[in-house]
Amino acid sequence: MTTLQPPAAAKRRPDRPPAKRDRRSWTGWGFIGPFVAVFALVFLAPIVYSIYLSLFRDQLIGGTTFVGLDNYTQALKDEQFWDSLARVALFLAVQVPIMLGIALLIALALDSGRLYGKDFFRIVIFLPYAVPAVVATLMWGFMYGTKYGLVGDINSAFDVTLPDPLSSDLVLASIGNIVTWEFIGYNMLIFYSALRVIPSSLYEAAEIDGAGQFRVISAIKLPAIRGALVIATIFSIIGSFQLFNEPAILRPLARNAITTDFTPNFYTYSLSFNGQQHNYSAAVAIIMGLITMVIAYVVQLRGMRKGA
Amino acid sequence: MSSSVTTASQPAPAQNSGGSKGVPRLRTRKGHVPGRPKRSVLLTVLTGLILLYTVVPLVWLVISATKTQEGLADSSGLWFSNDFALWDNISQTFSYHDGIFVRWLLNTLLYVVLGAGGATLLAILGGYALAKFTFPGKRAVFAVVIGAVAVPGTALAVPTFLMFSKMGLTDTPWAVIIPSLVSPFGLYLMWVFATEAIPNELMEAARIDGAGEIRTFFQVALPLLAPGTVTVLLFTTVATWNNYFLPLIMLKDPDWYPLTLGLDAWNNQAQTIGGDVIFNLVITGSLLTIIPLIAAFLLLQRFWQSGLAAGSVKE
């Protein structure tokens, strides 16, 4: 693997700021304009429209009426919403640390130079990232089967009765396993890429100080990749709060365990597309978006403040 | 998987586009850490356990794709059954229901070419603008795009659906393609990449020679952006190829389904009363769905890995 190097000609003289165009011209807009236009259509317009929708209510009698913040107060008292939020919060608290922890350990192992067949490990562990959530969930769903799946095979081979991974007690953990499988390699690669670009002068300094491997990890490597750790954590938090694909695809196999309000996203989806409650659904989605943004922001602030 | 691992500590010769130019600096760390790191069997075995975890489902998928519907029920998941039905399964997958799988494959390709291709193009242009130009509102553009990344995509799904439905776009390919055109991650990556890869002196030289902005972009900037482009293209392709939620809400007509939605529909078919149980085709179709992407990642490793490395420098 080659790390990116600026071409030799690009070596910047530190005393001179990068030579951008002197005048503040509109030329740049010619290049970024198309992105901004589509971005406005598919990001900004839906957000504005969503806020607008959330202020109305569609009733059988009287049609659509302006209700102010009624949808929001209803959502804040909605037990189904809070239950689903508690479920993804639990998921977040357990699955994300496990996934990121293992990904970090593998990245450190790869970077230590102590593995046989390092490149093979790196590539193969990354591969599940290329597998669509649909295929990953279908595969694991089949394997979870207590009759014909791998769980069933183990049961009959060892004459044991493993608990059903798709029962209501275990289904959240089973989904966590699928998500972990999908993203462990991706996170590993983010960490590994960040580890590779640590200046070797730091290691030289550590050597002079007589630091051992673990000291090098805690004093040099982890602080140096703090940015990557924070970014990966934020993306994982956003991903957990948005959980939808895996439970939705798994639901036909576990209809009793996975309800239509299993996660906040599943809940807003069901409200909108099965219940036709677009206005209320918009309010729930906005609350969920705000919660996600606040938590992501707090993680970023905390993560960066301790930064080197 | 080349062995030319370099350090970033010193400006080595340009290697972003090949690794063959210049002498790669080997990062053996010999003499940097007390003694050269000794390879460890224990560490390799421990990491091997994770490798096993990643690989077992894929092995299961490959083995299961060789079984008939009956074989799936009768035999153990991690070994072959008596009849080897892979070729049968493949031809059935392609011919089932008048070849709807082929239609889904072509749909997916359409969404990838226009969606991921378009997203990459917009990201290149935008990243180039952010990296190399000062323009009014630049900070605002940047702040809004970064801020919007934190907005859960699915929170946008319902309003986007309602908007598109008013515009008459739902149940058409555009409903899937247009939202795929924006990749904030791609924009960020291209911005970082363009900052590093395009020397300002080169742009100045082109301008002094009388080249216009468009010519400078196409003849000077674009070739230098090639490795970053491959990275962004690969990641937007994965996002589009694997997309499930967006087509799920936008499309009702199975004729416009991408592969992901089609496989899900085949799987659900077994749950409906009187539905044709075709798990062998679901499994074979899944295998056929992931092969192109896995092949692309394996063949283009050098490019996307250098692109990712570039992205992590800026953090």
Low-confidence parts of chain A, pLDDT < 50 over ≥5 residues? Answer: 1-23
CATH class of chain A: Mainly Alpha
CATH homologous superfamily (4th level) name of the largest domain in chain B? MetI-like
Low-confidence stretches of chain B: 1-34
> What percentage of amino acids of chain A are in beta strands?
under 5%
CATH topology of the largest domain in chain B: MetI-like fold
Biased composition (Basic residues) (chain B): 24-34
Domain ABC transmembrane type-1 (chain B): 105-300
Biased composition (Polar residues) (chain B): 1-18
Transmembrane segments (chain B): 40-63, 109-131, 140-162, 174-195, 216-241, 277-300
Brief summary of the model shown:
Chain A is mainly alpha-helical.
Describe the structure.
The complex is a heterodimer of chains A (308) and B (315). Chain A is globular. Helix content of chain A is 66%, strand content 3%. Chain A has 13 helices and two strands; from the N terminus they run αββαααααααααααα. Chain A has one domain (75-305): MetI-like (MetI-like fold, Orthogonal Bundle). In chain A, a hairpin with a 3-residue loop joins strand 1 and strand 2. With 308 residues, chain A is mainly α. Chain A starts with 26 loop residues before the first helix and ends with a helix. Chain A has helices at residues 27-54, 70-76, 79-111, 118-126, 133-143, 150-158, 171-196, 200-208, 213-224, 226-241, 245-250, 264-273, 278-305, and strands spanning 56-59, 63-66. By secondary structure, chain B is mainly alpha-helical. Chain B folds into three domains: 1-36, no CATH class; 39-84, no CATH class; 97-314, Orthogonal Bundle (MetI-like fold), CATH 1.10.3720.10. In chain B, 67% of the residues lie in helices and 0% in strands. In chain B, helix 3 packs across helix 13 (279-299) and helix 7 runs antiparallel to helix 10 (226-241). Chain B is globular, with a radius of gyration of 24 Å. Chain B starts with 40 loop residues before the first helix and ends with a helix. Classes of the chains: A mainly alpha (308), B mainly alpha (315).
